[in-house]
Specification:
Layout (H helix, E strand, L loop, with lengths): L8 H33 L3 H30 L6 H14 L6 H15 L32 E4 L6 H10 L10 H16 L9 E5 L3 E3 L2 E10 L2 E11 L5 E3 L3 E2 H8 L14 H11 L5 H7 L3 H17 L6 E2 L8 E5 L5 E6 L11 H13 L10 E9 L5 H10 L4 E4 L8 E11 L2 E2 H11 L4 H23 L2 E2 L8 E3 L5 E3 L6 E2 L4 E2 L8 H5 L11 E2 L5 H4 L3 H11 L5 H12 L16 H4 L3
Parallel strand pairs: 19-20
Antiparallel strand pairs: 1-2, 2-4, 3-4, 4-5, 5-6, 5-7, 8-9, 9-10, 10-13, 11-13, 12-13, 14-16, 15-18, 16-17
Helix pairs in contact: 1-2, 1-3, 1-4, 2-4, 5-6, 9-10, 13-14, 14-17
């Protein structure tokens, strides 16, 4: 129960110190995000990628700083629970006029759970649900930008309005031909607004900051007319001469879902009120979970908080059981899911078979690599949790047996809270969006029969995109390691995405070699490897027997991606990366590019 009076003098000081810690974090986070504009203007692509990686570490650094301060100045861990009740109440009071209250609550949780014993991780001491509303927040600073700008064009002034929208971002780099690009945008927009009867509220709303990622800047907004609205995004890129051009016009929820995919790197966006950006984006993409929107904006810890709240809510209002996930079982990860919830849960097994020459620490480092790296739309983002407690009754017996057989060191079954309810406490857990394993997706097509045009199309499309996925990973300096079909999944939008990270390496750390000719007839007839193999040696010619056993699959693959079976392809890509080349990987189909950009491809 909460105290009736706030009578612990140190409680306010602890709450204030915690908020100071958060404010320092968000100030540094926002400053680094704002610098993305200058890096874009100066074409500092390596700096942009480095900043994207380093910014991910900011949060944990600031949490550790805050914990050290609280222990040093207030002996926080020795304070009684009556003091911690009051700390939380004071903290809530400090957030009433704050511009990032939801992020500050998550920061409070992170700091508190580092200090208090885990048996106290319940709603009395942390924010299991939000205490401060994020509705209608805007900065009270007279010089602050609004979260979005609204423009009210007339039909005959639409071109001028679009030019005004672009000019509003004050990019310090000239456009190659802005008039031409606006013409492209209008031509792409025209079929979508041709049937409009313009209403009194006809307007264009645009978020005030550009969204920066890798070599692109994205203008995000919507066209409103009457009761309808049309989301849109305009990618802005550099040409070879360092001038800017608009590369495409993306319209509608599906285009924006691809742009904000969970398989892509986080954006860098200068936001004073992040909840206002999230609310705006949620209106453009109502199917996108708010947790994924926060993560896409680089606020991954807030994404984790919202995801966990959503999962607890779903558990409360569902009754199905957690089960072993469908598909081929892995040798390193144990995977389970809840059929009614669109995510999978993965934990590292305690022991691996001899053919898996790796350790728990190495596997964890691979997942960290993916978190920090540009995922180019081909590697699923992963939420990482510690000490996750779930009701024992929601685990199927088969899953419980699997957990205790393969990961007993990661599992504790107890009544942690003393409420008479058994819980399964998992020490370390990864959570990813559920996809259809590619091997099962292909099998569906085979089962339907390739004489069926739809089944054949499904097979061909997925095999082609599988090869495209590998090439996109290569462009991002990633060698996936184990390229079996089962390690890739198909998203809701039909895109092939890689999700098994325990064998990935940087492409530039690998040695791509040709298989040496046999020394004698015995070598030629032998099923054994007769040549010396180093720890990071890769022989692309040997991929085919493992991947292309089905003749129909082989025919499609060889028609589109035969180069993946040659060492020359891999060596050439490695060389380009080593010479500093940053590949273009577009979050939209090539056919959507405007002629000026497409001509450069």
């Amino acid at each position: 129960m909460y105290p009736e009076r706030l009578d612990a003098p140190q409680a306010y000081d602890i709450a204030k110190a915690m908020l100071d810690g958060f404010n320092r974090h968000y100030r540094l986070f926002r400053t680094e995000s704002a610098r993305a504009k200058h890096r874009f203007e100066t074409a500092d692509w390596h700096g942009q990628q480095r900043a994207q990686r380093e910014r991910i570490e900011f949060y944990d650094l600031r949490v550790r700083e805050c914990v050290r301060r609280l222990e040093k100045e207030f002996q926080a861990g020795a304070q009684g629970m009556d003091v911690w009740y009051q700390v939380k109440l004071h903290y809530i009071g400090l957030l009433v006029a704050h511009c990032q209250p939801e992020l500050a609550e998550t920061f409070f949780n992170s700091v508190t759970t580092k200090i208090l014993h885990r048996t106290h991780f319940h709603n009395d001491f942390i924010f299991v649900r939000p205490a401060v509303s994020t509705e209608y927040i805007e900065s009270q600073d007279p010089g602050a930008r609004p979260s979005y700008r609204a423009y009210y064009p007339q039909p005959e002034s639409l071109r001028e309005t679009l030019a005004q929208v672009i000019a509003g971002f004050e990019l310090q780099r000239p456009f190659e031909d802005l008039e031409r690009d606006i013409g492209y945008v209008l031509a792409a927009m025209q079929p979508r607004i041709a049937g409009f009867k313009l209403r009194a509220n006809f307007q264009i709303q645009v978020l005030s900051s550009l969204f920066f990622r890798n070599k692109g800047a994205y203008l995000v907004g919507k066209v409103i007319n009457g009761f309808s609205s049309m989301p849109f995004a305009l990618p802005i890129l550099h040409n070879e001469a360092g001038q800017l051009f608009i590369d495409a016009a993306l319209f509608g929820e599906d285009d924006l879902l691809a742009l904000f995919s969970f398989a892509r790197a986080y954006f860098m966006v200068d936001m004073e009120v992040p909840s206002a950006y999230v609310q705006f984006l949620a209106g453009l993409m109502p199917r996108k979970p708010l947790a994924e929107l926060y993560s896409a904006l680089g606020l991954a810890k807030q994404g984790k908080t919202l995801f966990y709240r959503e999962f607890l809510w779903h558990l409360k209002h569902s009754s199905d059981q957690l089960r072993i996930a469908p598909g081929i079982k892995g040798m390193v990860m144990l995977v389970f899911d809840l059929p009614s919830f669109p995510y999978v849960f993965k934990l590292i097994k305690d022991e691996f078979p001899p053919q898996k020459d790796t350790t728990r620490e190495q596997v964890e480092s691979k997942y960290q690599l993916v978190k920090r790296h540009d995922r180019v739309g081909r590697m699923a983002d992963t939420l990482e949790y510690s000490l996750v407690a779930l009701p024992r009754e929601r685990f199927s017996e088969a899953l419980m047996a699997e957990l205790l057989a393969h990961a007993p060191a990661q599992i504790e079954v107890s009544d942690r809270d003393g409420d008479g309810q058994q819980e399964v406490i998992i020490r370390h857990l990864y959570i990813e969006r559920r996809m259809v394993p590619l091997n099962l997706y292909l099998q569906e097509a085979f089962d339907a029969g390739l004489d069926d045009p739809q089944a054949r199309q499904q097979m061909e499309r997925s095999v082609i995109d599988y090869g495209n996925a590998i090439k996109d990973l290569v462009a991002a300096n990633i060698f996936p390691g184990d390229m079996l079909w089962k390690n890739f999944g198909v998203t809701r939008g039909g895109k092939v995405v890689f999700y098994d990270y325990d064998e990935i390496e940087y492409l530039t750390d690998c040695h791509f070699r040709a298989v040496p000719p046999p020394r004698c007839e015995e070598d030629e007839l032998s099923g054994e490897v007769w040549w010396k193999v180093g720890p990071r040696d890769v022989f692309p010619e040997t991929f085919a027997p493992f991947l292309l056993g089905n003749p129909a699959v082989r025919e499609v693959f060889m028609r589109h991606h035969a180069d993946l079976l040659t060492p020359q392809y891999w060596q050439a890509q490695k060389e380009r990366i080593q010479h500093g080349h940053v590949h273009d990987v577009f979050p939209y189909p090539a056919e959507r590019r405007f002629p000026a950009g497409a001509a450069r491809a």
